[in-house]
Each structure stands twice: as structure tokens, then as C-alpha cells.
């Protein structure tokens, strides 16, 4: 249990740490992706808004000139296709003519665009452009604070909106848009790409991701609390079992001392021997319960060198004496000595034979066999009972696991027997294996090393 608690703590710490690291990289990746997305969309939106605003300014300027009685026919933009020259005439109030010689037709077409030519006629109203740009950005779900900056070819600020903002702190920049055909003025929008600004832009996505991490942490903490609670219950249960076992041991020990001293005739001696055997079995069951209730502490054994075949044969003979109708056969082709703990090994063997009897549908037919396999002694218990489905074989030796069976079969026990058998085998540096075929029977084999294999 302690190892499981430690493992659970390690797993929980790893899960939470991995979640936070993943969250960091995920947020960073989302920020970068959103940066690129905003830059593209903001540049397109700024081009559209600027073009519309320059057209609007051109119409307003045209109306104003007519109202003031100015001849607007000389105010125009246009160009000569043959010599690739772009010319802008400004009639009022500057009375100037701006000329750009183009090297290629593509450049000529580029500077004939409204954005380049209209700027010299109308200028740019940065405050009005700022308001229109903000509305357009909101329609495209761009909520970052921004500043519009008009600069010249030397990167000197000509005007900016808002005027009190240090645009150098706004690191995310849309594409710089040239203004006019002379390449002297430019317009750029810069956005607040700080974590605060990006949180405002991505708040719903970020809140959702943080909620997921919070839920994961909450579930992990809840699982840890559950594990600690189960540990506490297990400790209470272990204490209760130990208390019960202690109370049961006293009368059993007393019976084991008294029964051999009872003097009686031969007709009653059989009952005395049966009582002694039952008392010993009860003592073994108490020991098994005590062992399985504290598995994590390990099993302490007192091995003795005994002839395994004779030891197993005596256990089988006791079953025959206890139930004359029981069809149990003992076979042995070895008489090797092995170091075993008589009490626990007898308990393990009794458990396998009891299971073979319990899970036989009709009359039990059991074969117990001792044989040598290399430097190991093997004890096999085989029956012709109901067998075990393959999907349950890997769980057989788990504590409290029981194979689902027909309700007509006996259901006594707590699912501790086979786990106890495995503990006993491991304490002897051995192992337990199982072969089973559903509806045809099972065979359990305890394997322990011979003394010269240690």
C-alpha cells in the first residue's frame, strides 16, 4: 500500500507538472499563431480602411473646392503610359505638381493605385482613420490595443494616434503601407502583444485551457484524497483483522494444547483426531488471514529441511481421512528434500486443494503430484472442475479478486487464498503458475528451488 501511495504521488506530480509545461508551450504556440494571424488580417483591414477613407476625403475635398469656387479640373491624378510616368496635380492650396518616373510597367500600375495617388491630393486624417480602423478590427475579432503611426523615410514620427502612447512598446506590427508616389511617407499600425494584451485578445481560449488544467489538477487531487482515504481504511481494517485474529488465536492455542492430553477409548479417538485436525486447520486459516491482511510487510517464514513428497503426501492423506468419498490421488516420482515453512506451505497446499474441491461441479477428481524440474521441486494440484476463462487468468493472484461463477457453486471466502499462495511461494524464492481450460479443469503448480540452487 505504501508503495502504491508513493507511486500515486509521483504520478500525480508528474501529471500536474506535465500539464503545466504543456499548458505553457500550448499558450506560447497559440500566442505565436495568433500573432501571425493578427498581422495578416490587420494589414488587409488597414489597406481597406485607408483606401475607403482616402476616397471619402477626396469627395469631401472636391465638394469643398467647388464650394469655394476653385477650378477643380486642374486637380487630378493620372499618368502617361508611354513614358511610365505618374503625375499628381495638386491645385489647391499647394499648387504643386508631383512626378514619379517608373522603371517598369508593374511599378507604374502600382503607383497608379488610389492609396498612393490620393494621399497627395487629400492627405490623411489619422484621428478619423483610427476610429474607422478600430470598428473594422472589432468586426474581425481583433481586440488588441493599437496605435496608428505616420512616419517618413527616416523613420521619424510625423503623427501618431493615441499621441501619449509609446509605440515602441507595441511589438506586433502590421505591414507598413507607403503613402504617396514619392516614397517619403508611410503608415503602420502597431499592436500591444504583451501577455496582458494577448490575454484580452484570446481570453476565451485561454480561460478554457486554464479551466481544463484546473479540472485536471482537481481530479488528480481528488484521486489522491481517495487513495489516502483508502489507505486509512486499509489501516483500520488491518488493525481490526489483527485484533480479531488475536482474539481467535487464544481459544485455538488452548484447544491445540488440551486435545492431545484427552484420554479416551478407541471409539472416540477418531473424533478427537478430527477435532485436532480441524483446530490445526483453523489455526492455519487464522495465519493466512493475518498474512494477507498485511501483505506489504512481507511474509516471515521459518524454513525446515523436509522431504517434500512425504510432506505433501501427509496433507493428501488427511483429506482422504476427513472425507472418504473424496476422489483425490497423490503421485510422486521424487523424494527430494527442500527448505519449507511447514505452517505456511501446508496452508498454501490446503488452499489449492480446497479450491479444487470447491470448484468441481460434480464429484471432485483431484490429482496432486510432486516432481523434479531441473533444480526445482514442483507440486501440482489438478482438477476436472469448471476451469477459468482466459481473460481472468492474469488477475487470479490479486488480492480480493474472485472469478465470476455460477450462483449454484459455493461462494465462500474473501478472495485472499490465491494471493496468499503466491506470497508463500515468493517467500520460498519460488513461484506459482496456472494452466486452465474453461469447463475442463485447472492445474496450479507451486515451484520452489532445491537447497543446492540457493
Describe this structure in words.
It is built from 11 helices and 15 strands. It has 454 residues and is an alpha+beta fold. The chain has 2 domains: 2-200, no CATH class; 294-453, Histidine kinase-like ATPase, C-terminal domain (Heat Shock Protein 90, 2-Layer Sandwich), CATH 3.30.565.10. Strands 4, 5, 6, 7 and 8 form a 5-stranded antiparallel sheet that branches. Helix 6 (203-258) packs antiparallel against helix 7. The two termini are 30 Å apart.
Q: What are the main properties of this structure?
A:
5-stranded antiparallel sheet, 11 helices, 2 domains, Heat Shock Protein 90, alpha+beta, 15 strands, 454 residues, 5-stranded mixed sheet
Ordered list of secondary-structure elements with their pairings:
Elements: H1 2-67, E1 76-80, E2 85-90, E3 96-101, H2 105-111, H3 114-122, H4 126-139, E4 146-152, E5 157-161, E6 172-173, E7 177-179, E8 185-191, H5 195-201, H6 203-258, H7 266-293, E9 304-307, H8 308-322, E10 327-332, E11 337-340, H9 342-358, E12 365-373, E13 376-383, H10 390-393, H11 417-427, E14 431-437, E15 441-449
Parallel strand pairs: 10-12
Antiparallel strand pairs: 1-2, 2-3, 4-5, 4-8, 6-8, 7-8, 9-11, 12-13, 13-15, 14-15
Amino acid at each position: 500500500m505504501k508503495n502504491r501511495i508513493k507511486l500515486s504521488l509521483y504520478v500525480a506530480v508528474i501529471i500536474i507538472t506535465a500539464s503545466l509545461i504543456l499548458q505553457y508551450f500550448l499558450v506560447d504556440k497559440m500566442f505565436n499563431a495568433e500573432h501571425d494571424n493578427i498581422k495578416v488580417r490587420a494589414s488587409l483591414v488597414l489597406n481597406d480602411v485607408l483606401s475607403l477613407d482616402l476616397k471619402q476625403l477626396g469627395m469631401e475635398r472636391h465638394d469643398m473646392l467647388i464650394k469655394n469656387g476653385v477650378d477643380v479640373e486642374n486637380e487630378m491624378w493620372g499618368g502617361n503610359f508611354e513614358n511610365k510616368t505618374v503625375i499628381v496635380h495638386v491645385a489647391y492650396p499647394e499648387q504643386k505638381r508631383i512626378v514619379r518616373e517608373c522603371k517598369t510597367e508593374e511599378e507604374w500600375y502600382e503607383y497608379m493605385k488610389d492609396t498612393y495617388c490620393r494621399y497627395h491630393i487629400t492627405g490623411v486624417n489619422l484621428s478619423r482613420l483610427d476610429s474607422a480602423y478600430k470598428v473594422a478590427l472589432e468586426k474581425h475579432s481583433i481586440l488588441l490595443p493599437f496605435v496608428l503611426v505616420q512616419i517618413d523615410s527616416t523613420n521619424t514620427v510625423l503623427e501618431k494616434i493615441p499621441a501619449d502612447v509609446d509605440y515602441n512598446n507595441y511589438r506586433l506590427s502590421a505591414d507598413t503601407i507607403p503613402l504617396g508616389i514619392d516614397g517619403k511617407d508611410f503608415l503602420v499600425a502597431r499592436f500591444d502583444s504583451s501577455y496582458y494584451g494577448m490575454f484580452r485578445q484570446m481570453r476565451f481560449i485561454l480561460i478554457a485551457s486554464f479551466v481544463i488544467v484546473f479540472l485536471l489538477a482537481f481530479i488528480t487531487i481528488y484521486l489522491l484524497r481517495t487513495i489516502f482515504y483508502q489507505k486509512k481504511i486499509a489501516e483500520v481494517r488491518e488493525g481490526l483483522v489483527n485484533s480479531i485474529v488475536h482474539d481467535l488465536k487464544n481459544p485455538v492455542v488452548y484447544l491445540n494444547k488440551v486435545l492431545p492430553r484427552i484420554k479416551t477409548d478407541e471409539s472416540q479417538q477418531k473424533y478427537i483426531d478430527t477435532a485436532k485436525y480441524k483446530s490445526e486447520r483453523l489455526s492455519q486459516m487464522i495465519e493466512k488471514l493475518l498474512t494477507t491482511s498485511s501483505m506489504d510487510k512481507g511474509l516471515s517464514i521459518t524454513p525446515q529441511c523436509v522431504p517434500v513428497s512425504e510432506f505433501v503426501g501427509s496433507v493428501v492423506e488427511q483429506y482422504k481421512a476427513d472425507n472418504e468419498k473424496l476422489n483425490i490421488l497423490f503421485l510422486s516420482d521424487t523424494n527430494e528434500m527442500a527448505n519449507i515453512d511447514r505452517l505456511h506451505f501446508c496452508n498454501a497446499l490446503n488452499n489449492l486443494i480446497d479450491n479444487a474441491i470447491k470448484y468441481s461441479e460434480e464429484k471432485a477428481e483431484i490429482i496432486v503430484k510432486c516432481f523434479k524440474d531441473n533444480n526445482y521441486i514442483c507440486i501440482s494440484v489438478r482438477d476436472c472442475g469448471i476451469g477459468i476463462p482466459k481473460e481472468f487468468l492474469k488477475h487470479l493472484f490479486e488480492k480480493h479478486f474472485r472469478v465470476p461463477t455460477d450462483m449454484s457453486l459455493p461462494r465462500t471466502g474473501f478472495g485472499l487464498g490465491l494471493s496468499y499462495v503466491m506470497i508463500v511461494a515468493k517467500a520460498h524464492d519460488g513461484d506459482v503458475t496456472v494452466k486452465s481450460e474453461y469447463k475442463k479443469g485447472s492445474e496450479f503448480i507451486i515451484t520452489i528451488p532445491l537447497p543446492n540452487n540457493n
